[in-house]
Amino acid sequence: MAMEPAFFKKNAREALKDQILRKNFRGAMDFLRLKRSAMFPDPEYFEELSAYGESIKQKALLQLPDLLQQLEHNCQRNGIQVWWAEDATEANQHILRIINENNGNKVVKGKSMVSEETGLNDFLLGQNIECIETDMGEYIVQQSGEHPSHIIMPAIHKNVQQIASLFKKIMPDTAYTEDVDTLIRMARDEMRDHFFHADVGITGVNFAVASTGTLCLVENEGNGRMSTTVPRVHIAMMGIEKVVADLSDIPYLLELLTKSATGQAISTYFNMISSPRKKDETDGPEQVHLVLVDNGRSQAYADKELRTTLQCIRCGACMNHCPVYTRIGGHAYGTVYPGPIGKIISPHLLGLESTKDLPTASSLCGACEEVCPVKIPIPKILHRLRVEANKAPGAAPVMRGQGSSRTKTEVRIWQIWSYTCVHPRLYHVVSRLIAVFGFLVPLLKSPWKINRAMPVPATKSFMSQYVRKKP
Amino acid sequence: MSNAKQQILSRLQAAKMGILKQLSPKPIAKQIGTPMEIFCRCLQQNHAEVIQLSQADLPAELTQLIQRKGIKSLVTTQDVAYLTSVPQLEILPATKKTLLDKSDLFYRFDAGLTTAKFGIAETGSLVLWLDKDQPRSISLVPPIHICVFYAECLYPTFAHLVNSINIYCSGQLPTNVVLVSGPSKTADIQQTLAYGAHGPKELIVLIVNRQPDQMAAFGV
Questions:
Q1: Predicted complex ipTM
Q2: What is the pTM of this model?
């Protein structure tokens, strides 16, 4: 499957035929949905909490430029070095420079979706720097030469047999086993050595607190804590939308995140980092760097409606509840962020040229909006992106690649249709013709026919029947 | 000001802002039981072992625990002189020198003993206040984590704790604050839960009930 959104339709057709993949996703999605709903037994409480979460994020977005500067100021005051990156290339260059300045050649990485966005692993490999993924799911995916298929559970597309075979292949001295405890222990032992020898730890950031200059990381495994404790240098990467005003915002967002993502009241670890190791402290990194990444986010920010995309706290509940994602899985999208949130964020990261088909892959059923912990109106934005993808040339610029879906034939057809509709005589002539020659319609070549039966127009038009029955 | 910073900020500042609709009221979750009951229940549900005891019983309980778990080596910042009576137990005080020797910590020590500064009842979380007195690695690297928690430091929710932190710390947090709510775990292989992914496989919480004259203001 090509990791390119331009191949979305082909990928989706292939994925639908893969019965193992469909079974893996079905099982995983049912599991995650049940876990989440057990955490919100009272719909009124979920409504209150998500409304509050939404207003925290909206308040933060309204002050975004100020909060980013405040975050930078307070991080620097605490001894955290802050770097700004317009795009993936610039973010990777910052990281490479920091690694080189510290003579690093071994890097361990906690989970970071932004680093997937920038293609950091491949970039560093090209510079002869080994970058090991340490989250169990990310490790499995990296060792298989794949990419995450889910933003929270990266290896969700694989079942235990597939992972057992993979471990046998990458650790040939060990016996084949499908016992999950044993598999996790094997990976743990392998990773201990990596943590031990790593010079640099790279992680993402779940929330950044502007008022205190604090970076917050949510995790269960402890690899995030390892990556931010053991190596000499810690580099955190974050999208600019992750900043919130105050520490008092954090408890609510954290509750919404862990309950929505994995159905946990709280994750095992919630790690709040406010500075590098101080002079009299005995462990922790000597340097902490924060790389602030835009990469298309400010484009979404410019438009009030599209800006709501940036409220996202990356819980993955929208994909877990999406009928399309459940059936085709995460890889078919060909983007770093799959599922409903991926369909509305990817066009900003990559432009609509390659992503124009993504917003159309939805029945607009609204499940994503219903479960979203910060009330992003995903169906409305999908609709809006369809409009943007079909915009006429010369329209006011809103986003990269607008008008990419627009074809001359389609425009011509709609022009004829609207002209016909506002000219009654012509309309009657055409509808009579269609009634007579309608039986030929199924012979037309049309993409409609790929998955559906072609409807045949009625042999008598509505108007002719209406006229006949008039007293 | 770097070029990227300037560019990003100027794009953000150019956007039409709009006004925030009224901030929604803060939600309040309902829970059954006293804060201490909820705290213990949540920790146990998250696979932690919970022992409640008095200050006077701490040495005896800890000694017994170490023997029961077969712990041969313990790294700690606490004054645990009373543990020297445990036969064949190696105690490593966490000083600058010892923690720099990563290989001991990574490959040799069985357990780390720490103190939590606060607790959160709603989620069953221990709040580790990591600074010069409390290194990060002890609660993370060895396979067993034993944590002493003083019952009077329990807050009903994280939001309550944040209020206190905002008052007492006036915008300056310590180097690292970690909420620990169970042993390390993962469900990344076909949603099957396994403990001890990268951090400790076991978490044992000793909840100590102190007399009022033994307590300290704002945590330990």
A1: 0.95
A2: 0.94
